[in-house]
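Work Package 4 report. The design task specified in the project plan requires that, given a folded chain encoded as structure tokens, an amino acid be chosen for each position. We show below one input record used in the internal validation round.
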């Protein structure tokens, strides 16, 4: 299996590293526009192989897409990260052009790839890549839900003083402050979380999750990369090993949840064909209302893209 990661910055290099040391792919091509940058990162990851004992080949290239030819999966992380004081949506004018040009080059050389978008604003950059690629919607998907649920699970594990491994959760909606964590679908070793924690504490964790990306931007001056890079690698793994994992993933909705023509995170089964199935939960009225707020927010940013020149 061959995987390309576009963008050798913080998230892209972390993703490539996880793909390599966990031997998720046979070959990982890391590509960046900055001369020598991806070559250096890929060489560094390769030089770690004798220490960490893996044999995935990592190759770095500067903008040479011919080297990415026939990739099974392509992860797009190229684009600006936000700085303190910015929202993810503020990145749209720069990142839409980057995601568009990268997608054009990717599809030229890997017409059968599954594309995982990471660049922000995530839901709308998934829209951009879907539009530009012309691929079926099951093969152009966005990474956010695994990261957002991981943050939620990590916060819960801390509050309950238990292993994060035992916390199962699902979250829906856009990758922004209107995301919809779902306590009703959260369990700890099979026990409903609501039986283990006060509702005030749970509400505080839900709120912290929603602004989890911003918390890290404030601390570091740029956005997170360890958990995002690992989350993208986990999606690649589900696809290349046809694991049929159940994850929240951003896709285009066409009637599911009563929503059409919008890119949002929903639980899916992820396997060798990309999205194998969208899982439709029986949301209650409160959850439906929260999802509708999130849909409206993403739709507003999709409209911004729709009004940008040459979006397709
Ligand atoms: N979906 C999610 O949950 C997350 C999304 N992100 C997003 O991922 C993106 C990358 O973040 P970082 O890796 O921290 O940024 P970074 O600045 O460390 O890396 C971005 C890389 O993209 C490269 N690049 C720019 N234009 C390019 C082009 N046309 N072709 C190839 N490479 C190009 C840059 O040279 C740079 O090396 C940002 O948009 C960020 O907001 C970050 C974390 C989580
Ligand atoms: O917060 C950001 O800008 C990056 C991101 O999407 C995240 O870490 O959730």
């Amino acid at each position: 299996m061959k995987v390309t990661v576009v963008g050798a910055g913080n998230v892209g290099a972390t993703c490539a590293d996880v793909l390599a040391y966990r031997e998720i792919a046979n070959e990982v091509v890391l590509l960046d526009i900055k001369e020598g940058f991806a070559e250096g990162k890929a060489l560094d990851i390769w030089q770690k192989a004798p220490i960490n004992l893996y044999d995935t080949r990592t190759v770095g290239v500067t903008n040479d897409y011919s080297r990415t030819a026939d990739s099974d999966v392509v992860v797009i992380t190229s684009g600006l990260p936000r700085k303190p004081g910015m929202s993810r949506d503020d990145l749209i004018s720069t990142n839409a052009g980057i995601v568009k040009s990268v997608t054009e080059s990717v599809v030229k050389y890997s017409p059968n790839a599954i594309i995982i978008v990471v660049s922000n604003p995530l839901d709308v950059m998934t829209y951009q890549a879907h539009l530009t690629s012309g691929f079926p919607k099951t093969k152009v998907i966005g990474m956010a839900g695994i990261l957002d649920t991981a943050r939620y699970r990590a916060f819960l594990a801390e509050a309950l003083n238990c292993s994060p491994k035992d916390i199962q959760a699902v979250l829906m909606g856009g990758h922004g402050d209107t995301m919809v964590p779902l306590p009703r679908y959260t369990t700890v070793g099979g026990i409903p979380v609501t039986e283990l924690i006060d509702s005030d504490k749970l509400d505080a964790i839900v709120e912290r999750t929603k602004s989890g990306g911003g918390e890290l931007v404030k601390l570091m001056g740029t956005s997170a990369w360890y958990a995002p890079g690992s989350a993208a690698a986990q999606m690649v793994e589900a696809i290349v090993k046809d694991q049929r994992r159940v994850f929240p993933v951003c896709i285009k909705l066409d009637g599911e949840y009563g929503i059409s023509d919008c890119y949002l995170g929903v639980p899916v089964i992820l396997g060798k064909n990309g999205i194998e199935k969208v899982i439709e939960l029986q949301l209650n009225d409160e959850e439906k209302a929260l999802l509708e707020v999130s849909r409206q927010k993403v739709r507003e940013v999709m409209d911004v893209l729709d009004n940008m020149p040459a979006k397709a």
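Residues 285-306 form the longest helix (22 residues). Validation will be extended to a larger panel in the next phase.
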